[in-house]
Specification:
By secondary structure, this protein is an all-alpha fold. The chain has 23 helices and 2 strands.
Length: 477
């Protein structure tokens, strides 16, 4: 058994080093850069417009929040469900890990990956709406596997994507999240993981045994609350250390291009490590390029593909450029992070503290119950991720095995939650990380080959807007 585990570990390390290694990270950036250039930097040149069509519409148009389509969800609900899956432990522990293992410069590269990832996600969602269809129950079905099959005609590649997605839903979308919740409750409140497992199974079952509309009704309440809850906590810490904010930004930009670690590091460190940690954590956090959240965006009642693409831009913006930045500034301004010490340890491959612990220390430096605050934040984020990923796995299983497989998948998904709460998951975490990344390979191939369609739809939509033939909300011509 030990030999088997050793072999699996070795194979996974090799695969993981590729999927989150330099070649694939460059691929993530290259695809985002390609769409950025071909859309003439849409995320900046049309920033006022996509904010108005997405976030600001929440205060102007009830149609964005509610839908009359009994087999679809609203645009706001699709955003919340997508954010439920992406805003997770990566925003709290992942950012801290990137800083601890890659230095403050990792934050800059995380920002860059998010900036380019906005247009990658825009392309995914636009294609998702274009190629979606209604299944036998009347539900909208879309996602990377759908535009791979219908756009490229490569069903074999769509099957590969769906297999990776289905497996990842049990790992990164289930066991690892459940383990984070159980660990947090045990460390902060002394709760037995077995009790957590049973309660969590019941809570998740109450939501996912319904349809996407039930999941959406829950996420539209949890996501805004947990995001505001965490952001306000972070702003309290940052405000208490506001004089250190300029220094924090100085560290971020200086270390992003530093070739040598402080404290006697090896020449050539700095930029390489910061880039690898920052870009990988950025992609891991917002999932732009993985093709995962396209499935829930495709369930929206929107009629215009480009509008849902713009919701994708806002999703990445909110996830990484807002929430992840709050975490980074909280850590860098709190005084718990000593740059020279950490960079020296990085150069010598010494791990001082985990990402969760570093974030907890930052919050505790100002908020008396900071550790429990972070623990509750992680639990809320992880619970919402469970809900979002259950839907991704459901869509993947339906694509592979048909509608009849959905009920069995949900039952298995619920049972696996308990295993995640009580088991030791070091290897599972690593394998889940690898499977999550491998979803990107077929997806990036597809959106690159279908890029002409994305650009054509974008130009057509912009032309309609300029001539007044498109409404501001974009869902009625």
């Amino acid at each position: 058994m030990e030999n088997f585990i050793s072999t699996v570990t070795s194979v996974n390390e090799t695969l993981n080093s590729f999927i989150w290694g330099p070649v694939m990270l460059v691929a993530f950036l290259a695809v985002g850069l390609m769409f950025t250039i071909r859309t003439k930097v849409f995320q900046i040149s049309h920033m006022k417009y996509w904010l108005d069509v997405t976030f600001l519409q929440l205060f102007k148009n009830k149609k964005v929040i509610r839908t009359n389509d009994k087999r679809a969800i609203s645009q706001f609900q699709s955003l919340c469900t997508a954010l439920a899956a992406t805003i997770g432990t990566g925003n709290i522990a992942g950012v801290a890990t990137a800083i601890a293992a890659g230095g403050p410069g990792a934050v800059f590269w995380m920002w860059l990956s998010a900036f380019l990832g906005m247009m990658t996600h825009y392309a995914e969602n636009t294609l998702g709406i274009k190629y979606r269809y209604r299944n036998e129950r009347g539900d909208w079905i879309g996602g990377a596997m759908i535009y791979i099959e219908r756009g490229l005609g490569w069903k074999w590649l769509a099957v590969i994507f769906s297999v990776f997605c289905g497996l990842a839903s049990f790992g990164i979308g289930n066991m690892t999240q459940a383990n984070s919740i159980a660990s947090g409750l045990k460390e902060s409140f002394g709760l037995d993981p077995r009790i957590t497992g049973v309660v969590l199974m019941i809570l998740v079952a109450m939501v996912i045994l319904g349809d996407i509309k039930r999941i959406a009704r829950v996420t539209e309440k949890i996501v805004p609350f947990m995001s505001i809850f965490y952001i306000l906590g972070g702003l309290i810490v940052i405000s208490a250390n506001v004089t250190r904010v300029p220094y924090a930004f100085q560290m971020i930009f200086t270390e992003a291009f530093n070739f040598k670690a402080a404290g006697g590091g090896v020449l050539g460190y700095g930029i390489a490590v910061a880039m690898r940690k920052g870009i990988s954590r950025g992609v891991f956090s917002n999932e732009a390029g993985l093709g995962s959240s396209v499935m829930v965006h495709s369930a929206s009642d929107v009629k215009e593909p480009v509008v849902q693409g713009m919701w994708g831009i806002f999703e990445v913006f909110a996830d990484t450029l807002v929430v992840c930045t709050i975490t980074a500034l909280t850590i860098l301004t709190s005084g718990v992070y000593n740059m020279d010490t950490y960079l020296a340890n990085i150069a010598n491959n010494v791990v001082v503290v985990s990402g969760t612990a570093l974030t907890s220390q930052a919050f505790s430096s100002v908020i008396p119950f900071g550790g429990k605050f972070v623990a509750v934040g992680i639990m809320l984020f992880a619970f919402s991720t469970l809900l979002g990923w259950s839907y991704y796995g459901e869509r993947a299983m339906e694509y592979l095995l048909g509608v009849k497989a959905i009920r069995a998948y949900k039952v298995i998904f619920i049972c696996v939650i308990y295993l995640g709460c009580v088991a030791s998951l070091n290897l599972v975490w690593d394998i889940a990380d690898t499977l999550n990344g491998f979803m990107a390979v077929p997806n990036l191939i597809a959106i690159t080959l279908l890029s002409d369609e994305v650009i054509a739809m974008t130009r057509e939509y912009i032309a309609k807007v300029k001539t007044g033939k498109e409404t501001v909300n974009g869902d009625e011509l």
